[in-house]
Amino acid sequence: MVRISSQQIFSGGINRMQDINSDLVKTQQQISTGKKVNKPSDDPVAAARILKLDQNLSRVETYQRNADLADNRLKQEESALSSAIDIIQRVRELTVQAGNGSLSANDRKSISSELKERLGQLADVANTRDASGEYIFSGFQGGSPAFVKEDGAWTYNGDEGQRVLEIDDGVTVPISDHGKGIFGNVPATVSMKETTSANGFIAGLSVQNESALQAAFDSVAPNVPNDLTVSVVNAAGELSITANGGALDLTPTPIPSVGDTFQVAGIEMTVTDAAYDAVAGTGDSFTIGINDKQSIFGTIENLIAGLDNISKDSPKGNAEYDALISESLANLDNGQESILLKQTEIGGRMNAVESTSAFLEDSALYTKEIRSQLQDVDYAEAISNLSFQSFVLQAAQQSFAQISRLSLFDRL
């Protein structure tokens, strides 16, 4: 026979109501927060998985912000380069216009005036800033303008650093390019650099065969063409053509003379009005730049200086002016090509960012779905449980109230 004291009855009833009330409060909390797991003790296994999913989602969101930043920076750079292309195209149109033989000196100065404006616009583009105020073409020196005007010429003021962002685990993308590589180190066409001649000049200087030019230097310095030196070597006006500081003799056969149009290493030229000093035993010489680099700014500056200063009142002046126009057009084309190549590269980066962003978006969506399954409450089920638990609690309270009034004295 089991004896149950009144104390046991009271304790058991109270404990039962507390348990039911605890379940009721838990269900109410789930409904109010919308979460099944509000603390680790609710479901330790689910809580651990939710924590890991939250960490993964935080990582993905960080990469998404980086991808958005990379996309914005690359779009801004691409837009700036598009503006630069437009400016260079206008400069090219003006250069073609300047090549019109019927233009007067005032016409050329008028073109020069607009070129100065276009040069300033190009500098503004090259000094584009991002949303934080940093210059996007200055490398790591974002606080300093990429190009500054010193002694009347625009020079590069940044460094050659390239910024990168990590947009996924092990996936980085460059988000900047230094202006020196885009606007500065542009291959220059062959051109006259120096001469010892007072009256002589080289006319019709142009590359006719790029392969022949390269092949001429491969035996001495592969892929590194150097300057050509053209010299008058005797009173008959015969010429010698050497390269790489005289280490390479490129004089063709038959030996050309002053006034002849000839080709050497794929380059066509005509040496005009050059002379030989029999007393001194030396002749006029000309240095032709082969593998030089020139900034787009330098190309436009040289064009402006030529339009302002070259006189077309002599055969030499006419030859210098014609060379200025042809060389400027070739160098502007090289500048455009340099920018277009960079735009193509940026387009590839933007595609990589776009595909990575899509992957991150899918990953975030998948992570959120799994977390929702573990964490989010089923309101229909929770409300049903709340109603049932409320009913059970009321029944327990009524039952306890009935039992608590029972005692031996009620039967006496």
Automatic annotation (TrEMBL):
Its main location: other. GO terms for cellular component: bacterial-type flagellum hook; extracellular region. This is Flagellar hook-associated protein 3. The gene is flgL. GO terms for biological process: bacterial-type flagellum-dependent cell motility. Belongs to the bacterial flagellin family. It is found in: Bacterial flagellum; Secreted. It comes from the Bacteria. It comes from Marinobacter litoralis. Residues 338-406 form the Flagellin C-terminal domain. NCBIfam families: flagell_flgL (TIGR02550). Keywords: Bacterial flagellum, Cell projection, Cilium, Flagellum, Secreted. Pfam families: Flagellin_C, Flagellin_N. InterPro entries: Flagell_FlgL (IPR013384), Flagellin (IPR001492), Flagellin_C (IPR046358), Flagellin_N (IPR001029). GO terms for molecular function: structural molecule activity. SUPFAM superfamilies: Phase 1 flagellin (SSF64518). Residues 15-139 form the Flagellin N-terminal domain.
